[in-house]
């Protein structure tokens, strides 16, 4: 089929044959098919979906659009984690050194901010000098010698996904299960892993707002993994409010380091430990989740986790002193508080609205080529279930450019809900699938 015919066929709900899918994705990767035609096909997929045969072909074409890395010279079971994205989700920054400190090799190819969610690469780059664009040879060496490497997609690894990831972000086709599943799995399977832990977010700040949709996405990715011979475990985790208290790149780095020192908010600590424990079990470093938790808590207590983070930072060109001296990280020039309009409790937070407020402030991208400000963001002084008094600060805004601040404050205040009674707490880990 010609591109026009393929787009029209999917728009009309017809099944695409694998050969046509592969040809279209190859042509898009090489630049023969332009962005506007891929955008049209993505929108057709958004409304019409992909069946299991189409999805398998789509994922394999994305995977095989570039190099599939071989890490067989690194001993042990290579395990990675992937999050579907949330607000304040800095888990990878703590999880990778935690798992590596416990002996699990962690090859991690991450992405940048997408829609209202933050990106691991943007957070890492707020550490002075940290390089995420290492060559594949260096990636292999660091996984083997350091036990972990965190990079962005190279030109040779899943290049189709790299192009499509940025395009989806600006064409309202992010929250589509087939496109999410194929994007994640093509990238993860290309990085040389043996097993994968999925953090599928669910709630107002997730792309999957409902548990049943998150479950469908998790099962879709587990199925792709099984077809490709990889063990995949998924946790559905709560994103009905931001994770932790920091939102914004450098602010989240600080909170991630604090977690490795045992001083982070309880919700962020719990989700990180739950996901990393799954990695230790898949990696053969613990026989049970309980044993894995003990090892992780010991690595925090004895300082080996934070030492591993410093080793990773230094190996990737960053300044390890910033892990001890947060003043070396980007700092916003000014702060202003958003205050509670009434006495009572925080009864809810529209988390996606908080993420979009962060984008408006400059912490995320409004266009593919937007520059982000790593210093800006929010500190959530009150979260769901916590008491407040009228006039008391609930969010602190860290900013450089004063122009968007009033709009951002209005967005944040509108995102918060207040009431006379505290709501019942929600479970952080909603469900586990394998």
UniProtKB/TrEMBL annotation:
It catalyses: thymidine + phosphate = 2-deoxy-alpha-D-ribose 1-phosphate + thymine. InterPro entries: Glycosyl_Trfase_fam3 (IPR000312), Glycosyl_Trfase_fam3_N_dom (IPR017459), Glycosyl_Trfase_fam3_N_dom_sf (IPR036320), Nuc_phospho_transferase (IPR035902), PYNP-like_C_sf (IPR036566), PYNP_C (IPR013102), Pyrmidine_PPas_bac/euk (IPR018090), Pyrmidine_PPase_CS (IPR017872). It comes from the Bacteria. GO terms for molecular function: thymidine phosphorylase activity. SMART domains: PYNP_C. Gene3D superfamilies: Nucleoside phosphorylase/phosphoribosyltransferase catalytic domain, Pyrimidine nucleoside phosphorylase-like, C-terminal domain, Transferase, Pyrimidine Nucleoside Phosphorylase, Chain C. Homodimer. This is thymidine phosphorylase. It comes from Archangium minus. The lineage of its organism: Bacteria, Pseudomonadati, Myxococcota, Myxococcia, Myxococcales.
